[in-house]
Design a protein that fits this description.
alpha/beta, 5-stranded parallel β-sheet, two-stranded antiparallel ribbon, elongated
Length: 249
């Protein structure tokens, strides 16, 4: 996958040179090209923003440099990129959307600043606006990095163990179960007995119960569209019974 990134802060993207996603980039599972928006400004001072028509605080990224940059990227790529604008008003990023985007061969991210980008750019060029949540960041770069990290995890070979992807939170509509490691006993607590039993069925049941229970407890909306078997319902009821007394309900 090729990911083109239009930004006013290219130095921020060095963070993706590290960790799992950084190793995947070094292995050329995905490639990144940073485009500094000021390089496409026709002004001597390289400014790319201006005041908003109608008044109000803040500045807006103008259409000239953005349009020129996007056109240039279209010309140098064999296939027209799928253009994404990082914007608080966009579709909320989730695992399903990340998996869909991972099927694209080329993404182009527009990382806005200030009050955002001129709306004409969105009308002309943007295929999808994406938000990472109901809040506002100082710019689209942090949201863009979250998107790239989450999407690249779905590219084959990115993770050292592909099974990890299948067991991630939200992979099947549920949060992941809790994880424990050595030592078995510690001042902070003990490892649950089921994980020490050596019984695969007992371990699987415990992990499924915890995934269902944690989702019900912390992200209940996820259960609305998640089909539950009769066994799942029993496990969820067991979780609620074991983890919540009457005074908690």
């Amino acid at each position: 996958m090729m990911i083109d990134i239009v930004t006013l802060a290219p130095e921020m993207w060095q963070s993706l040179d590290h960790g799992v996603v950084g190793r995947a980039k070094n292995a050329e599972i995905w490639q990144q090209k940073l485009w500094h928006l000021r390089d496409f400004s026709t002004r001597k001072d390289r400014r790319v923003d201006d005041k908003s028509y109608g008044g109000g605080p803040g500045m807006v990224l103008g259409p000239e440099a953005l349009h020129a940059c996007i056109q240039h990227i279209d010309q140098v790529r064999e296939k027209k990129p799928f253009v994404i604008e990082l914007d608080p008003s966009g579709t909320t990023l989730n695992a399903e959307l990340c998996q869909t985007l991972a099927q694209k061969s080329n993404l182009l991210l527009l990382c806005g600043r200030y009050e955002g980008i001129d709306a004409r750019i969105k009308d002309k060029h943007v295929d999808l606006s994406i938000s990472t949540g109901p809040y506002v960041l100082s710019g689209g770069d942090l949201a863009g990095m979250c998107l790239v990290d989450a999407v690249c995890r779905f590219l084959p070979g990115t993770l050292g163990n592909d099974i990890s992807l299948m067991e991630d939170s939200y992979a099947h509509g549920l949060l992941d179960h809790p994880h424990y490691t050595r030592p078995q006993m510690h001042a902070t607590g003990v490892v649950p007995e089921a994980l020490l039993s050596g019984d695969p069925k007992k371990i699987d049941n415990w992990r499924r119960m915890m995934a269902l229970g944690r989702t019900w407890q912390y992200q209940p909306d996820c259960l609305i569209n998640t089909p539950l078997s009769d066994a799942d319902i029993v496990l969820l009821q067991t979780y609620i019974k074991d983890h919540f007394n009457r005074s908690d309900r």
